[in-house]
Amino acid sequence: MYEHYKFVNTPLPYAYNAMEPYIDEKTMKLHHDRHLQTYIDDLNKALSNYPEFQDWTLSELLVNIPSLPQEIQTEVKNSAGGVFNHQFYFDNLANPAPPAPTGELGEAILNEYGSLDLLKEEFKEAGLSVFGSGYAWLIVNANGQLKIITTPNQDTPLPMGMCPVLNIDVWEHAYYLKHYNMRNDYIDDWFHVVNWDKANDNYANCFAVGF
């Protein structure tokens, strides 16, 4: 994520109702226009009096939180994480979606998990295991291995030296209007709109940038 202060909420790359019937239009509007916008506003506010950090990209902020003044570290960590995580989530959705990953990502999934179905099983278990709010991720670790991890709240894999390939938001605001408290059903529906082509691009980019 290469944008920097002042951060803006760019439009979704599809219509609000594009993920129907799997993710409803009202949820997409609220999720993008209100929840993501709040994180953007809070991040801009936190950086407004610190011009020395205003040319840092979103990724640079997230991997260098300890270098920031202590009084804004928590706010920047939470807000920048919220911006990164949401943008990554929205950018990796499509409807109709590719039926399966191809290319290098497809090969890596077969090598690491044996099949796409087995990957989905483990990914779903990870998403369901998040207590409260957070994310499940498919990442490339520092050894170049494909792994599934979870993060709480708005933490990201970046400070851990991991490169994200795919994520699912399991905060309740991502699914409650349609799926109520049935996170299990939401994850099943989300698999119908995973943009595997974009995930394959993300996977290739992980190695292009040195992971």
UniProtKB/TrEMBL annotation:
Keyword Oxidoreductase belongs to the record: yes
InterPro entries documented for this protein: Mn/Fe_SOD (IPR001189), Mn/Fe_SOD_BS (IPR019833), Mn/Fe_SOD_C (IPR019832), Mn/Fe_SOD_N (IPR019831), Mn/Fe_SOD_N_sf (IPR036324), SOD_C_sf (IPR036314)
Molecular function via GO: metal ion binding; superoxide dismutase activity
Cross-referenced Gene3D superfamilies: Fe,Mn superoxide dismutase (SOD) domain, Iron/manganese superoxide dismutase, C-terminal domain
Superkingdom, natural source: Bacteria
Record-listed E.C. numbers: 1.15.1.1
GO cellular component, one term: cytoplasm
Catalytic activity: 2 superoxide + 2 H(+) = H2O2 + O2
Residues covered by the Manganese/iron superoxide dismutase N-terminal domain: 10-94
UniProtKB keywords: Metal-binding, Oxidoreductase
Binding site for Mn(2+): 31, 86, 169, 173
Xref: Pfam families: Sod_Fe_C, Sod_Fe_N
Annotated ranges, domain Manganese/iron superoxide dismutase C-terminal: 101-201
Function: Destroys radicals which are normally produced within the cells and which are toxic to biological systems.
Family: Belongs to the iron/manganese superoxide dismutase family.
Name of the molecule in the record: Superoxide dismutase
Naturally occurring in which organism (per UniProt): Faecalicatena contorta
Lineage: Bacteria, Bacillati, Bacillota, Clostridia, Lachnospirales
